User: What shape does this take?
Amino acid sequence: MIRECTDADFEAILSIINDGAEAYRGVIPPDRWCEPYMPAGELRNEMAAGVRFAGHEAGGSLVGVMGSQLVQDVILIRHAYVRTARQRRGDGGRLLEHLSETAMRPVMIGTWKAARWAVRFYEKHGFTLIEGDEKDRLLRTYWDIPDRQVETSVVMADQRALDEIVVGWDKPTAVKDDEIDIFRL
Ligand SMILES: CC(C)(COP(=O)(O)OP(=O)(O)OC[C@H]1O[C@@H](n2cnc3c(N)ncnc32)[C@H](O)[C@@H]1OP(=O)(O)O)[C@@H](O)C(=O)NCCC(=O)NCCS
Assistant: This one.
């Protein structure tokens, strides 16, 4: 079951993010990894900045969360995590579909360039990988992240974002796993 999260879910959201983020260990650049991956204070700041979480509940408890944030003229999907033990069972897909269906604006997502599984996941749901100068421009326009994170991230855009927000993007093609160079970070 998908439901909107409330303040009472704070600890569960934090725990799911830090559990799910274990997937990044040893994959994202070492200088971008920290422990815990998401400190409580940072999550509080994100929520105060308007990130609202939807959660997927199974067996009476939350097992996955996905945030969304209205920024200027777009909706950003932020902090998408499913508990490690529950990954690849469709929970993340259901959350993404829910947020996409209810989004009133173009939708974009930023993720680590090295998280190839996440790029695949979003592509399966109709998002397009944006790289190069345009993804740098998008990250600097819509996200509040350090330069190093801009360098090591990519953007995924839905069709509406491609039509209305992304500039100069000409018929992108799906990227195969071995075409994303994780050493180019
Ligand atoms: C990305 C994530 C939210 C997707 O949620 P999920 O419930 O696992 O995804 P679904 O079951 O709906 O979809 C699974 C698809 O996603 C991709 N995928 C997700 N995790 C994967 C993994 N560890 N390895 C390879 N592919 C993976 C695959 O395309 C997979 O399809 P397949 O199982 O048929 O190969 C979840 O895997 C997760 O929390 N991952 C770690 C953190 C992360 O990468 N978050 C994204 C931040 S932007």
